[in-house]
Amino acid sequence: MFQLHPAPTFNAKVKLTVPGQETPAEVDFTFKHKTRTAIDDWTDRLSTERDPGKEAPLLMEVIAGWGVGNDLSEANLATLLDNYPASGGELVRGYLRAITESRAKN
Q: What's residue 104's pLDDT?
């Protein structure tokens, strides 16, 4: 059902590259809803921030939960980003895709 005020969180699967595996791992994430203006601000800050240490705090602004098996924390997210170099971009793209595109079910 469509509502004028969306739910504060939503769930989406994000494909994360795992080195040495042919197919990416699909990980469940709970994301926080942001308005268009807030998304624009967030993406601007992502594009201007080049310090890898700032990536986890910025991503924590939109991630409310995950299916990784460890508690979601800024430190655990930083570990994921460090261990899986492609994951930062994949998380950003996954969030933006999930918040801006509807999924068609067959």
A: 54
